[in-house]
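Troubleshooting entry. The earlier prediction with S-adenosylmethionine gave an output that would not parse, so I re-checked the input for stray whitespace and re-submitted. Clean input:
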Amino acid sequence: SYRSRSAFKLLEINDQWDSFLTKPDVKAVVDLGAAPGGWSQVPYDPLNIDDLEPSSALTGRGTIVAVDLLKMQPIHGVHAIQADFLAAETERRIHNLLSVKGNLECKADIILSDIAANASGNDVHDIESSLEICEAVFCFARQYLRSAERIGRRRGGVLLMKHFEHPLLQKFRVEKLLPNFHDVRYIKPDSSRSASREGYFLCQGWKALEE
Ligand code: SAM
């Protein structure tokens, strides 16, 4: 059983949009804001969907790296890092884990972010930090997403990220996401409470324009 309701959101998004999680060539997944671990438990290979420890299916031939401020109960085959994603040294720790299993380029096929900053009680501050997180996740993706050429398929890496309403969110989408991915969708999953102001961007096909 999954550790969080969020896992069902992820499966719902996956079912609706091209089963992006369950492509056979997925080798490395980074799960940001991962605790308690529902998204890290989701199976990344349709052949192993009945496996009791689904993530182990991927770890046989790939890597899952999970990052959260909170400590996570271990999940077999998932490398958990307890750290602030926004702290400078966290990237190096993710990088080190991505480089195992012969992944010399240190690229990820899928980057997921379900990060929700803890509400500070100050609305202005909370709204600002929600965009700051999206920007940081995008910067990370720019460096670590695998491009299409390298994996010999039409589509490059996939970024799924949670966001909250923000006055500059559309600018972020237009300037950062649209030019860099073949396909960008705004998603409000049914299983996310309709009153909440959260949504997701599902960005498929990283173009790696700057490389
Ligand atoms: N996807 C998870 C699951 O399925 O179990 C649920 C994630 S929960 C909605 C959001 C998480 O983001 C929280 O566990 C929180 O600790 C984490 N978080 C918030 N700010 C963070 C940061 N700066 N760095 C790392 N994790 C952060």
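This one parsed fine. Residues 45-54 have pLDDT under 50 and may be disordered.
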